[in-house]
Amino acid sequence: MRRFIFNAGFISALFGGWGAIKASRRGPHDWRLVLLWVSWALAVAIAVGNVLEEAQEAQDDLEHEREDERKQRRDVGRQAGKRSRDLAGSLRKHDQDLDRGRRN
To answer: How far apart are CA 69 and CA 28, in angstroms?
Structure first.
C-alpha cells in the first residue's frame, strides 16, 4: 500500500480525480465529462501499472543479487577446496623429499 501512497504518478491521478469530481458537480453533463472520467481512469491504470512494474523490477534485482551472492560463496568454497588440495599435494611432495633424503 505504501508503494501507491508515495508514488508521484498515483498521487497525481488522485488529484485528477478530485478535479473530475468538481467538474461533475458544476459543469455540463456532456461528452467532455465522459472523456474527463475516461482519461482519469486511464491515468489511474497507468499509475498502478507503473507502481507494480517498479515493485517487480525491485524484486527481480533482489533475486539477482541473491543469486550473485550464492555464486560468489560457491566460488570461494571451490577455491578453498583447491587450495587445500594443493597444500596437501605440496605436503606429500615435501614428505617424499624428506624420505628420499633419509635414504641417501
So the answer is: 61
Euclidean distance between CA atoms 89 and 85, whole angstroms: 6
**What whole-number distance in Å separates Cα of residue 59 and Cα of residue 54?**
9
**Residue from 54, 62, 39, 60 nearest 4 by CA:** 54
Residue 9 in contact with residue 46, Cβ under 8 Å? yes
Tell me the per-residue pLDDT of 30-80, one tens digit each, with 9 for 90 and over. Answer: 999 999 999 999 999 998 998 889 889 888 888 888 888 888 878 777 777
Helical spans, DSSP H, in the chain: 2-5, 8-26, 31-103
- How many other C-beta atoms are found inside a 10 Å radius of the C-beta of residue 10? 18
Say how far apart CA 20 and CA 41 lie, in whole Å.
Answer: 10
Map out the domains of the chain as residue ranges: 2-74
